[in-house]
């Protein structure tokens, strides 16, 4: 696995309350944008207000903020990936600039450029992916992905007539929100039970999912259930497409499902929201995400272009080095 050069201090990180506040404020004001973009804005503000006098001190401030944000949103793979990529992206500027004042301004500029590029990534992905949707295409989606929704809305606006089958996405039933949003835009939708994916697959032309993270070998980490959907699709020879921003490319390499970082979710609370009360004495296995190996993925639609899973490692090298 690739390793990032040691550019940041190894001192213990200090909690950056202001970075977390900036992060949460930006998310509240921009609910339609990903938390990774909010993190980039917060980190750029860290550079702007830093009182550091050297690049090493500035890197330490940046590291403290990154660790604080990762603690604020525990186990978010996309947040961790975007923070690491941002840190690498902005610190490259220090390699060629000796005057610290010039370097600071360059870092601020780079941070803003990174945020702008991140915000534009959905439009780029939609432009790449829309060609795979034709009149009459029947699409299965799973989870609540802003970039997938953006792509589908873009295809609809371009005049294409297609239909979408949406899994419930328990325990949070994220599919309900997705169905509501797409139907409001005039897209023909149908909800199905998570357990009905194999039954429905005969009447599906392609699977389209988002990603919490795209890993080194081209596999993806996404909402639990993605793995089995991809396996069923592969068995029935249906293509599986993943729409993901390049800031979700992460330098991790899961070998099995146990290697997937998990959020700590309360399954019983989520089930009660949908009117189900399981026995409190019976434990539930409730992973938030699962890992889909690259052999089950046909193509990835990214802001860098349309990639095969095998091309991801090359793109990671370009992003980090």
UniProtKB/TrEMBL annotation:
Q: Which SUPFAM superfamilies match?
A: NagB/RpiA/CoA transferase-like
Q: Gene3D superfamilies recorded for this chain?
A: Translation initiation factor eif-2b, domain 2, Translation initiation factor eIF-2B, N-terminal domain
User: What are this entry's molecular-function GO terms?
Assistant: guanyl-nucleotide exchange factor activity; translation initiation factor activity
Cellular localization per UniProt: Cytoplasm, Cytosol
Which keywords are on file for this protein? Cytoplasm, Initiation factor, Protein biosynthesis
Query: Taking the first listed entry, what is the main subcellular location of this protein, grouped into a coarse class?
Result: cytoplasm
The superkingdom of the source organism is Eukaryota
Q: Which GO terms describe its cellular component?
A: cytosol; eukaryotic translation initiation factor 2B complex
Q: Which InterPro entries match?
A: eIF2B_alpha/beta/delta, elF-2B_alpha_N, IF-2B-related, IF_2B-like_C, NagB/RpiA_transferase-like
The record's section on Pfam families has: IF-2B (PF01008)
| Protein biosynthesis as UniProt keyword | yes
What's the family? Belongs to the eIF-2B alpha/beta/delta subunits family.
Protein name according to UniProt: Translation initiation factor eIF2B subunit alpha
């Amino acid at each position: 696995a690739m390793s990032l050069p040691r550019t940041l201090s190894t001192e213990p990180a200090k909690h950056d309350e202001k970075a977390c506040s900036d992060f949460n404020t930006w998310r509240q004001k921009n609910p339609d944008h990903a938390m990774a973009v909010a993190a980039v804005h917060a980190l750029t503000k860290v550079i702007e207000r830093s009182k550091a006098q050297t690049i090493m001190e500035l890197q330490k401030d940046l590291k403290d903020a990154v660790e604080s944000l990762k603690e604020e949103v525990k186990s978010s793979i996309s947040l961790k990936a975007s923070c690491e990529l941002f840190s690498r992206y902005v610190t490259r500027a220090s390699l060629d600039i000796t005057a610290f004042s010039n370097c600071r301004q360059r870092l601020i500029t780079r941070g803003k450029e990174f945020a702008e590029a991140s915000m534009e990534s959905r439009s780029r992905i939609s432009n790449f992916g829309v060609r795979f949707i034709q009149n009459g295409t029947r699409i299965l989606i799973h989870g609540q992905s802003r970039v997938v929704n953006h792509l589908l809305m873009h295809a609809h606006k371009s005049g294409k007539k297609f239909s979408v089958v949406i899994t419930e996405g328990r325990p949070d039933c994220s599919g309900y929100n997705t169905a509501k949003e797409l139907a409001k835009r005039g897209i023909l939708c149908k909800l199905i039970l998570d357990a009905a994916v194999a039954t429905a697959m005969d009447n599906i032309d392609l699977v389209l999912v988002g990603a919490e993270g795209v890993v080194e070998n081209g596999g993806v980490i996404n909402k639990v259930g993605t793995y089995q959907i991809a396996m069923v699709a592969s068995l029935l020879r249906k293509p599986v497409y993943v729409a993901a921003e390049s800031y979700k490319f992460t330098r991790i390499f899961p070998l099995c499902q146990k290697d997937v970082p998990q959020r700590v979710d309360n399954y019983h609370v989520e089930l009660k929201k949908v009117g189900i009360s399981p026995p409190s004495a019976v434990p539930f296995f409730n992973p938030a995400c699962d890992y889909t190996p690259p052999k089950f993925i046909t193509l990835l639609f990214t802001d860098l272009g349309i990639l095969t899973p095998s091309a991801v490692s090359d793109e990671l090298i370009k992003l980090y080095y």
